[in-house]
Each structure stands twice: as structure tokens, then as C-alpha cells.
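User: I'm writing a short methods note and want a consistent example. For HxlR family transcriptional regulator, I'll paste the sequence; you return only the C-alpha cells, no commentary, since I'll be parsing the reply automatically.
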Amino acid sequence: MTARGNSSPALRHRDAGSGPPAAAGGGETDDEVCRQVLRILALIGDKWSILVVGQLRDRTLRFSELHRAVRGISQRMLTLTLRQLERDGLLTRTVHPSVPPRVDYALTPLGTTLLDSMTALADWAVTHRHEVDDNRRRYDAAHPPR
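Assistant:
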């Protein structure tokens, strides 16, 4: 994405059909680009997807290794997350013929392109976590539950 003040259609949502083509000759309106980007961000912004991609950053892992590494995720949620990441081309699933079957997961080249952005976001969260917590406390004190 682009920095604040730039004209990325993903950062400035318009009413349906009101935007000019996002790219010369591309034929896509800003609204079409926005919808596509929001669908992708919903996936890669999901906490489980972020954690799975993070675990696969350095090596290929089996399902059971991922399940142990991503604390709190159920087997079903891990299965759904892996399936969606594979569908989007962010990881590969390799089944090895053995008894029991061995299944390995690894990031694709497209999946590895997420790592820098995810690391930057995680670094931002670490740097600003105390400030965010302080802001939440101040807000909660000024706006008690009704």
C-alpha cells in the first residue's frame, strides 16, 4: 500500500461505480480494485493467517508442527486457514505417500513477499503497544460501560 496522502484506491474507498479506472488501460474502477483488495486484506489481516505465515517464514512445516506452533488455533481453524492460503497461492501443500500420510506446508514466492510487510506491522505493534494500551485505558476511563 502507499503512504498517507497518496492516491491508492485501496486507501480511499469510493461509492460503487463512481471511480475512474484505477490503472490506465486496466479497465478496473477504483471500486472494483477496492473490493478485491479488501477481500485479500481480510485474509492476510486475519490473526491466524498472519501467525501461520510467520511460522512458515523460515522452513517447511507439517500440519502437527504448525498446530503446536500456532497457540490457541483449533485443528479445524488451522485446516480452513491453510486451505485459504493455498487457494490464494500463498503456500503450497505437499502430500507425501506414506503411512500415515505426511503433509508439508511451505510459503510460495508470493507468500514470502508478505513477510516484510508483516514484519513491519509487527514491529510497529511492538514499538507502539504501550501507547495504544495507555490510549485504551484513557478512553475506557472517559467512556465507562453503560
